[in-house]
User: Which sequence fits this backbone?
Protein backbone atom coordinates (compact mmCIF):
# COMPACT_ATOMS: atom_id res chain seq x y z
CA UNK A 1 0.00 0.00 0.00
CA UNK A 2 1.42 3.38 -0.99
CA UNK A 3 1.28 6.26 1.40
CA UNK A 4 -0.19 9.44 0.03
CA UNK A 5 1.45 11.72 2.62
CA UNK A 6 5.19 12.27 2.95
CA UNK A 7 6.87 14.59 5.43
CA UNK A 8 9.64 16.76 3.97
CA UNK A 9 11.86 19.55 5.19
CA UNK A 10 11.73 22.73 3.16
CA UNK A 11 14.71 25.08 3.05
CA UNK A 12 14.20 28.65 1.95
CA UNK A 13 16.96 31.21 2.28
CA UNK A 14 18.31 30.53 5.79
CA UNK A 15 15.06 29.11 7.18
CA UNK A 16 14.14 25.44 7.50
CA UNK A 17 10.52 24.33 7.74
CA UNK A 18 10.54 20.70 8.99
CA UNK A 19 7.59 18.33 8.78
CA UNK A 20 5.80 19.82 5.77
CA UNK A 21 3.49 17.14 4.39
CA UNK A 22 3.14 16.45 0.69
CA UNK A 23 -0.12 14.76 -0.32
CA UNK A 24 0.67 12.83 -3.50
CA UNK A 25 -3.02 12.39 -4.27
CA UNK A 26 -3.30 16.18 -4.78
CA UNK A 27 -1.96 18.19 -7.73
CA UNK A 28 1.45 19.87 -7.25
CA UNK A 29 -0.16 23.31 -6.96
CA UNK A 30 -1.47 22.30 -3.51
CA UNK A 31 2.08 21.78 -2.25
CA UNK A 32 3.24 24.98 -3.92
CA UNK A 33 0.36 26.83 -2.22
CA UNK A 34 1.61 25.53 1.14
CA UNK A 35 5.05 26.87 0.29
CA UNK A 36 3.53 30.22 -0.69
CA UNK A 37 1.90 30.46 2.74
CA UNK A 38 5.26 29.82 4.43
CA UNK A 39 7.56 31.85 2.22
CA UNK A 40 5.49 34.41 0.34
CA UNK A 41 6.99 33.21 -2.97
CA UNK A 42 4.26 32.85 -5.63
CA UNK A 43 3.86 29.29 -7.00
CA UNK A 44 4.84 30.33 -10.53
CA UNK A 45 8.23 31.55 -9.22
CA UNK A 46 8.99 28.45 -7.13
CA UNK A 47 11.48 25.77 -8.07
CA UNK A 48 11.31 22.43 -6.30
CA UNK A 49 14.84 21.12 -5.85
CA UNK A 50 15.96 17.67 -4.79
CA UNK A 51 19.33 16.00 -4.81
CA UNK A 52 20.41 15.94 -8.42
CA UNK A 53 18.46 18.87 -9.82
CA UNK A 54 15.19 20.73 -10.18
CA UNK A 55 11.89 18.89 -10.60
CA UNK A 56 9.42 20.03 -13.20
CA UNK A 57 5.90 20.67 -11.85
CA UNK A 58 4.51 17.50 -13.46
CA UNK A 59 7.07 15.29 -11.77
CA UNK A 60 6.75 16.63 -8.22
CA UNK A 61 3.98 14.23 -7.26
CA UNK A 62 5.18 11.37 -9.48
CA UNK A 63 8.69 11.48 -7.97
CA UNK A 64 7.59 11.56 -4.36
Assistant:
Amino acid sequence: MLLSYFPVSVKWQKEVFPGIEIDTSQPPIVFKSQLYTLTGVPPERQKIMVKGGILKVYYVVKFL
Notes: Residues 5-63 form a domain with the Ubiquitin-like (UB roll) fold (CATH 3.10.20.90). Residues 59-64 have pLDDT under 50 and may be disordered. The CA atoms of residues 5 and 45 lie 24 Å apart. Residues 28-39 form the longest helix (12 residues).
